[in-house]
Design brief:
mainly alpha
């Protein structure tokens, strides 16, 4: 993964949906995303080929993206964080309105 932003997105997706992955995919993606192990290091540690480790990473990433595409949890979390940031930057009256808006979003089940 060349792009740090994409890696951070995958880490966030893993934290949201990682429990939905198979045990092997979860274990390998954890090593790759959270512990920053290389594919070679993962293959050696898990006793699998580099191709198998790479395949598990790619399939796991695809599953995480699929879960987000269907469930939109990360999108909702980012929207909520953005709204909260705006609420904290506004004046008193604006803050009151922004916080009420956040309350409504929460009640709507974001």
């Amino acid at each position: 993964m060349a792009d740090l932003k994409e890696r951070l997105r995958l880490v966030s997706l893993y934290r949201l949906y990682g429990e939905l992955l198979s045990g092997t995919q979860k274990d390998i993606l954890s090593s790759y995303l959270l512990y920053d192990l290389s594919i070679g290091e993962i293959a050696e540690e898990k006793g699998v080929s580099r191709a198998a480790a790479f395949d598990a990473i790619k399939k796991g990433e695809k599953k995480l993206e699929g879960y987000e595409k269907r469930l939109h949890c990360l999108e909702a979390r980012e929207k909520f964080a953005s709204s909260l940031g705006r609420a904290l930057e506004s004046d008193d009256e604006g803050m009151r309105k922004a916080i009420l808006s956040l309350k409504e979003e929460i009640e709507d089940g974001i």
